[in-house]
Amino acid sequence: MKETSFESFLKTDWNEYMTMGAAACVVIAILILLYHEFRVLKIKDYKQKYDYVNLHEIRYFWYAVLAVIVAAGFYANTLYTEKIATHGELWFYVRLFITISFVVIGYFVFYSMVRIYYPRYVEKRLVKLRNKPRVSPTGNLMRKLSEEEEDTHLDASQIAEEANVHSVDYDVWIDDASGHKKIEKYESYLHAEQCPECNFFTFKITKEEVEVKPTQTEPGLLMKHYQCDYCNHREARETKLQPLGKNV
């Protein structure tokens, strides 16, 4: 039996287009990840590297995953082409509908997985970047000060900011040989912690309230309100604020 133009198109051109589309999407996914890592490697300052990873890594990873999902959809449209060509044009549209449905399902499933599981990896990477030894302009390795040591190196505005709503955290690095000092500012409310209810890294600060303001001699009290983006678990935690006199 002579092949119809539809059967001929399906067995040759269609499969070729779908294979090319799948390959192109896989290449795009790899390029997205390589571009992100190249940008990270280009940044020399660890604090700037930290900020870039914190702001962009999950988004770029999701774009790469999305490209792979689309690639799988293209590839799925090359399966059983011989049978579909012999059974009629209707089955071609059935396969198209099924693959599009699975792509949509895959989009929501993998979006949730990336949002729930990937932050754990990102947080580990951020911790490493935050604690990576800094190098002073003279080439010496710098030492990260403890919470007690760093207070004397912060000015009044920085100390007040740490006690503010959506408080920040400061890291102080010092070169003991030359005396060079580097102060880095981190915004704690941007980071996810492990939820005590579902154990996913989707537990974030939503609000902070200074319940008792610290004085020169008396400590204060800060209430941090957390909420999980996944299971909606809510929790409030108290944090002591040091007396202002200790920071002078």
Would you mind describing this structure in some detail?
The chain is an alpha+beta fold and 248 residues long. It has 3 domains: 127 residues, no CATH class; 55 residues, no CATH class; 58 residues. The chain is built from 6 helices and 6 strands, in the order ααααβααβββββ. The strands form 2 sheets. It has a 3-stranded antiparallel sheet with strand order 1-2-3, covered by helices on one side. Strand 4 and strand 5 form a beta hairpin. The longest helix has 43 residues. The mean pLDDT is 85.
Could you give the distance between the termini? Answer: 94 Å
Give the tally of structural domains. Answer: 3
**Count of strand segments:** 6
**Percent of residues in beta strands?**
15-25%
Structural class label? alpha+beta
> What's the tally of helices?
6
Give the mean pLDDT.
85
Which runs of at least 5 residues are low in confidence (pLDDT < 50)? Answer: none
Alpha-carbon Rg, integer: 27 Å
Q: How many strands, which pairing sense, and closed or not: the largest β-sheet?
A: 3 strands, antiparallel
How is the topology of this model organized?
Elements: H1 5-42, H2 46-76, H3 81-87, H4 89-131, E1 143-144, H5 147-150, H6 156-162, E2 168-174, E3 181-187, E4 203-212, E5 220-228, E6 234-241
Antiparallel strand pairs: 1-2, 2-3, 4-5, 5-6
Helix pairs in contact: 1-2, 1-3, 2-4, 3-4
